Amino acid sequence: METRIDRIKKQLHAASYKLTPQREATVRVLLDHEEDHLSAEDVYLLVKDIAPEIGLATVYRTLELLTELKIVDKINFGDGVSRYDLRQEGAAHFHHHLVCLECGAVDEIQEDLLEDVENIVEKRWNFQIKDHRLTFHGICWRCNDSSSQNPSE
Amino acid sequence: METRIDRIKKQLHAASYKLTPQREATVRVLLDHEEDHLSAEDVYLLVKDIAPEIGLATVYRTLELLTELKIVDKINFGDGVSRYDLRQEGAAHFHHHLVCLECGAVDEIQEDLLEDVENIVEKRWNFQIKDHRLTFHGICWRCNDSSSQNPSE
DNA sequence: TTATCACTTTGTAACGATTCTAATTAAAGA
DNA sequence: TCTTTAATTAGAATCGTTACAAAGTGATAA
């Protein structure tokens, strides 16, 4: 079976880049922390565990490269750091985020939900949408009511 | 007639802050450039024209204060700088943005458009929404087709 | 008026995230 | 193999932003 790494390798090759050991280590960290929203520094520290000789600049360059190839998305929640998030395989669009103002948790919404809105925007503003960023700020289910259950995630 | 500045002054007073000359100059710049999305540096340079002795730190502090009071919104389009945008008077929610990948223009959408989506998110994810950020990246009407007209803005 | 107090501003230094640079290393092609 | 190009490294540099110490402002009360 073809693994996720194999497919990413192909994507790199298709753009005439190589999957060097440093790049592979970086991708593995991202795969192992798909749920999280790691900053470059976070990634760097985690990559160092499996590839101690890696440099911070390489991590930055790798993340930039992966962003260019749309393998990861670079996001920004308003604190001073950029975070990097693996894109769902085959996802045409970027997923949305729920940022809790109370506990800081970041949850993801994989559903699109924006189809109607995008149709309106494309027509009414004559704007050809390539991508979107949607983040809700508020109170998450955990903080909302401790007796409530984790919803449809 | 009560001016916009007067009302902002009241908002400051209500939170026991004063509208100092520096703060007033900063607000005036924002009012005079409501269409733009100025960075702190941009604001600083413009404020210097009407109040040359102002310090950069003061501009930052003023923008932070105005953000706290929800008079302006601090936004981030992924380039390394924060931009500041006057909130429409009476707007409960933050407006949306269209960022053109070709010419870099930033247009605004004042309509809400997200009501349905927010209802779904609140119910399905049990998430109490306080605010949102929605930005579309794509090709604007100007770049899309030079013969086309400025749409419903 | 003068003293006092809290708030504000100033310029500069410090900080932290990110990018650049120069030197080195690894890989790929001839 | 040799040559050429791409990738990596450590550390310096840069850039936006924040923190700090000193000075200024303005209101209140003796």
TrEMBL record, chains A, B:
GO function terms (MF aspect): DNA-binding transcription factor activity; transcription cis-regulatory region binding; zinc ion binding
Record carries keyword Metal-binding: yes
Cofactor(s), names only, from the UniProt record: Zn(2+); Mn(2+); Fe(2+)
InterPro entries recorded: FUR, Fur_C, WH-like_DNA-bd_sf, WH_DNA-bd_sf
Ranges in a coiled coil: none
Cofactor note as given: Binds 1 zinc ion per subunit. Binds 1 Mn(2+) or Fe(2+) ion per subunit.
Kinase found in the keyword field: no
Pfam families according to UniProt: FUR
Domain of life: Bacteria
Entry's family note: Belongs to the Fur family.
UniProt protein name: Ferric uptake regulation protein
